[in-house]
Every structure is written in C-alpha cells, then in structure tokens.
C-alpha cells in the first residue's frame, strides 16, 4: 500500500468573508428589524392585537426599535472592513448586469452569473433596504411627533409607512428564504468564514485579501 493512502485528508480551505464587527452589525440590525416587523403585525392584525393586548407597550417597543434601527450601521462605520464592504456594495460593474440578466432568464450556470464579493442581487437588496429604512424612519417620525407637520403630511406619511412596511415584510421573507437555501452563506455570517469551493462557485470574481 502506498504511504499516501494512509495520509490524513487535507482540511478544506476556509476564506475570511466577514469581520466580527460586520457579523454583529448584521445580527443587531436583523434583530431590530424583526422586532419592528413583529410589533407592526401585532398593531395592524386584529387577531394578534387581541391576543397580545397592551397596545401602548407594543407601540413604544415598535417606536424604540425603529429609532434604533440605523444605529448599528452608524456605529459600524468605525470598522474599516465594514466601510470596504459598503464600497463593494455601492459599485455596479458589467459583470453585475450579466448576473441580473442571467437571473431574469433563470440561467443558473456558474459562468452566466459572475459575481465579486457580493452579487448584483445582494447589492440591489442592500440599497433597497437602506432606502426603505430611511423612508420608514422619516414617516414614522411624522406620525410620532404630530406637531412636526400639517395633517395632510401626516396622513400621507401614514399611508406610505403602512404600505412600505408590508413591502418590507415580503422582501424580508424572500431574503430569509434565500438564506435558508444556502447553508454556506449562513455559515459565513455566523462564523465569518466560507469554504473556498463555495466562494469559487458563487463569487468567482471575489479576491479575498490574505
């Protein structure tokens, strides 16, 4: 028997994807967003409102979670790794257009979906959820501090806030569904590392720094 036959298998290479600060930013933001969605559901679905009760407390929790929602990202700007990833998320290149075109055609071939550290879908989601959060914060303040604006503004703010909240819930459900279908991506957010094979398959243009 060859000596190599008894040699231990080489462990799969792991690549650093997210820093500890980035993982905590994601977890804290997700927790706050979850509180906002759950409390909003309690406030607007009669069956849940009756089941939970204590509407004033639910309103206060919803307001506090909404005000705190941008805080993790603002604090995270102190992290260099987070700032670098924000620049990646904010840049669209020719390969992103190819990725989107392949996604629209449901073409799942690896060569049809080139992506750097973040694919085009993740970039669009990040931009959309950031903008939606700011709109929700602004409309929420108009609804909370009634003296800030005339009645017509507050009425419009309520309409936008309610319907955008429903849209956010739907988009978040899709985001969670996609995450559930990719265990390695979830592991990257949990531990900060991903397998080299996964990175080559899902993000072939990504060049991790040593």
Strand order of the largest sheet: 1-2
Q: Main β-sheet, in a few words?
A: 2 strands, antiparallel
Sequence stretches where pLDDT stays below 50 over 5 or more residues: none
Structural class call reads mainly alpha
Radius of gyration: 21 Å
**Oligomerization status of the protein chains:** single chain
What's the helix count? 10
N-to-C order of helices and strands: EHHHHHHHHHEH
What distinguishing features does this structure have?
two-stranded antiparallel sheet, 210 residues, 10 helices, mainly alpha, 2 strands
Describe the fold and architecture:
The chain has 210 residues and is mostly helical. It contains 10 helices and 2 strands, in the order E-H-H-H-H-H-H-H-H-H-E-H. The longest helix has 30 residues, at 151-180. The relative contact order is 0.14. The protein has a two-stranded antiparallel ribbon. 69% of the residues lie in helices and 3% in strands.
